[in-house]
Amino acid sequence: MTCEQFPVSVGSFSSEYGFPYSTSNVIRNVCGIPSDVSYYGDNWYSASFRHYGKVYQQRPSFKAFPCLQNPKWFPYTDFMECIFSKPVMATSVKIYENFFPGSVKRILATNRYSNKQDHSEIRWQLLWQQDCQTESSPYYQYTLNKIEFPRTLIPVDTLRIEFDVSKSEYYSQIDSVKLIGEKYIEETNCCVVEDSEARISEDLQSVLKNEESTTQTENKLLVCDDNFQTLSSVSATPPQGIDSLPSEIIMKILGFLNVDDLTRSSRINKVFHRLSRDPVLYTCLNLRPFYRVLFDHSLMNISKCSSAIQKLDLSWLGSNNQISTSTLCSFLRNVPNLSELRLSSCQMLASSVLETLAIYCSNLILLDISYCNNGLQLCVSWLTNLKKLKYLDVSHTLITTSELLCLLNKLENLEWLNLGSPTLIADQDAVINSITKNPCGLLKGIQLWNWDKLNFSCISQFLHFHGKAITELDLGFCLSVCSHSDILPNIAGACPNIMVLILTGHSETTDAGLIDLSKGCLMLEQLDLCGSKHITYPAMKTLIMACKRLTLLDVSYCFKLSVKDVVYLQKLYSNVSIKHVETFLSQSVDAIFNFDDERLYHDVC
Question: Of 191, 269, 482, 571, which has the highest C-beta tally within 10 A?
Fold first, then answer.
C-alpha cells in the first residue's frame, strides 16, 4: 500500500535565513502540507538558506580566511534533514520549490530510529543525484520536482536533501517535501541496498582497523576516488620507474596533490603508501565531503598522520551519531599546530570539545562553531585561553549572555565576529557595550543578523569606536535599531572603509541617508537595502554613480522603486548586480526594456 507523508520535524541543517524562534524563512517550514499555489513566489512561510550565489565568497571576511576547497564531485553548499513519522520503502520524493528552483542536487535517506546497536550500520543511502553541471533556474517559477528512484530495500524515515546554491541568482526556497513509498512491514531478514560510497565505508573500517599490519607482504588500501569505487590489493614490488626516485623528490611531487589524489596515490605500491601518509602532506585537511563514511575508529586512525595539520574542516560531521564527542576530543588532542578549525553543523559538538581546544589548540586563529543546533548549551568561556583568535563564528548556536561576555572580554586580537541569530542572548546591548569598551583590537567585521533587541544608541557608540576599521557590517533585521531613525548617517560618518553593508529590514532608511552614504563610503561593494520603504530612484542612482566599486545591490521590497525604475538602473549600470524581487516576479519585464529613448538619454548624460 502506497504511503504519502510530509515531514513532522527537521534534524540538522547547514543554515537558515530566519530567526530560530520565528516563522519566517526558517528550515522547519518544510514540515506539514505545502502552501496554496497562490502563495508561491517569495514566500516568508517557506524554508530558505542564509546565502545564495557566490555573494558570501566575495566578502572581506571570506577573503581573509577562505574555506578549504571541496573536490569537484562534492559541490554541495547546504543541506537539510527532514524527519517523517513512519518508515517506508521509498519509491519517490516530491519537492515543492516555490522560488528560484533547481538547487536540489542530491537526496539521501536513512532510518534514524533504527534499533541497531552499531551506529556504523546506520548510514546515509544515496537515493538520487543530479549532474553537478546542471544549472539552477535563472528566474522565478513554481516547480513541483518529482524525483523517482528504485524502491529501497530498507525502510527510511529521514531524508537528507543537499543543495548547491552557488549558481542561484537569489534565495532558493523550499515549501515542503513529500516522501512516497510502500508501507514497511518488519521482517527478520532485510537486505540493505548499498551504494559505492557505503561499500567503501566498510572497506575503510577494515583497512584502518588493521593499519598496523600494512608492512607485511600485501597491503589493502582504500581507493577514495571521485565515485568512491573499489578496494584494491597492492602487492609489494621492487622499486622501479618513478618510485625509484629519491624520497625527497617524490615528497615534493606529492606536495602538489590534494587529499583525494594522495589517497589514490597511496595504492600504487608500498613506497607510495608510506610516503603518502607522511604528516607533512596533511597540513590542510577538508573532511566535510566524507561525512558519510567517517566513524569513530576511522577518525582516530586519521589522527595518526595529523600532527602537522594547520587548517581543518570537520563541518557536517557527526550525523547519525557516527562520531562521538569523546572521539572528537581525542582527535583534537593530536593536532597541536592547528590554526583554523571549522565545526559548522557538527552534531557532536559539546562544551568538552571547547575545553579540549582551549588546552591543546591554543594557536587557533579561526574557529567556526555555527549552526551546531544539537540542543546543547555551550560553555564558550573555555575559549578565553585562545589568545590568538582573530575569527569567531558562533551564529545560531546556544550561548548565554554571561558566557559570551566572559569570552569577549578576553579576546584581544579578534578581528572578525559573527553573532548572527542569537538564541539565548537576552541582553544584547550588554554584549555590544562590552565589545565597544574592552581592550581588544579594532574589529574589521561584525555580523549581528537578527539582533532584534539591540538599541540605536548602543550601535551608534560601537560605530564611533570601531568605525574606521570596519569593512563588513551586518545589521539585518535589527528591528529596534531601524524602527527609530535612519542609521545610514552614522555609518557614513564613522565607517569610511566599509565594503559590505547589510541593512535588511531597515524600513526607515531615507534618501538623505543614501546621499550621506554616497559621500562617506566610496569603498562600498555590497549593499542590502531590502525592505526600505522611503528610498527613491534619484537617490539610488546617485549612490551607484558615486560608489564605483559597487557590485551587488539588493532593493527588494523598496516600494517607492518601481519595476521600471529598477530595470532602468540595471540597464544603465550593468556592472552592478541589482536584486529586486518584484522584477523577478514581473511577467512584463521584457516589455519594460523597450523604454523611452529620451529618458535613457537624460540618464546617461
Answer: 482
* Tens digit of each residue's pLDDT (9 = 90 or more) over 476-493: 999 889 877 789 999 999
**Predicted TM-score (pTM) of this structure:** 0.86
Question: Residue 256 to residues 102, 253, 281, 573: CA-CA distances in angstroms?
Answer: 35, 6, 9, 42
With residue 568 as reference, give the H or E element that holds it: helix 563-572
What is the chain's mean pLDDT, rounded?
84
Q: Which residues does residue 107 pair with via DSSP β-bridges, in sequence order?
A: 128, 161
> Given a cut of 80, is residue 247 above it in pLDDT?
yes
The DSSP bridge pattern shows strands 9-13 and 143-148 to be unpaired
Q: Among 159, 97, 157, 100, which residue's Cα sits nearest to residue 128?
A: 159
In whole angstroms, what is the distance from residue 175 CA to residue 590 CA? Answer: 28
Neighbours of 418 (CB within 10 A): 21
Read out DSSP for 174-230?
EEEEEEEEEEP---SS------HHHHHHHHHHHHHHTGGGGGSSEEEEE---TT---
Torsion of CA 456, 458, 461, 466, to 10 degrees: -100
pLDDT band at 222; cut points 50, 70, 90: very low
Cell of 214: 600494512
Residue 119's CB is within 10 A of a number of other CB atoms, namely 15
Please say whether the beta carbons of 86 and 179 come within 8 A: no
**What band does 238 get if pLDDT is binned at 50, 70 and 90?**
low
pLDDT of residue 227: 38
List phi, psi (to 5°) of 132: -65, -20
Using CB atoms within 10 A of its CB, is residue 144 exposed (0-12), middle (13-18) or buried (19+)?
Answer: middle
Which grid coordinates belong to 461? 557608540
Task: Give the model's pLDDT for residue 240.
Answer: 58
Helix, strand, coil tally for the chain in percent (to 5):
30, 20, 50
d(CA 123, CA 112): 9
**Beta strand residue intervals within 374-427, DSSP E:** 391-393, 416-418
In angstroms, the CA 448 to CA 198 distance is 40
Mean local confidence (pLDDT), 143-167: 91
Query: What are phi and psi for residue 430, nearest 5 degrees?
Result: -65, -35
| Residue 147 φ then ψ, to 5° | -115, 120
Look at the alpha carbons of 323, 329, 334, 340 in this order and tell me if their dihedral is positive or negative. positive
* Euclidean distance between CA atoms 29 and 47, whole angstroms: 5
Q: What is the pLDDT of residue 213?
A: 42
Nearest to 380 by CA among 359, 422, 350: 350
Asked whether the beta carbons of 528 and 499 are under 8 A apart, the reply is: no
Residue by residue, DSSP assigns 264-275 as: HHTTS-HHHHHH
Q: What angle do CA 418, 422, 425 make, to 5 degrees?
A: 115
Q: Are strands 472-474 and 391-393 parallel, antiparallel or unpaired?
A: unpaired
Q: In 356-381, which positions are buried (b, 16+ CB within 10 angstroms) versus exposed (e)?
A: bbbeebebbbbbbbbbbbbeeebbbb
Per-residue pLDDT of 16-50, as tens digits, reads 999 988 889 999 999 999 887 656 778 889 999 99
Residue 374 in 3-state DSSP? coil
CA dihedral 150, 155, 157, 162 (to 10 degrees): -40
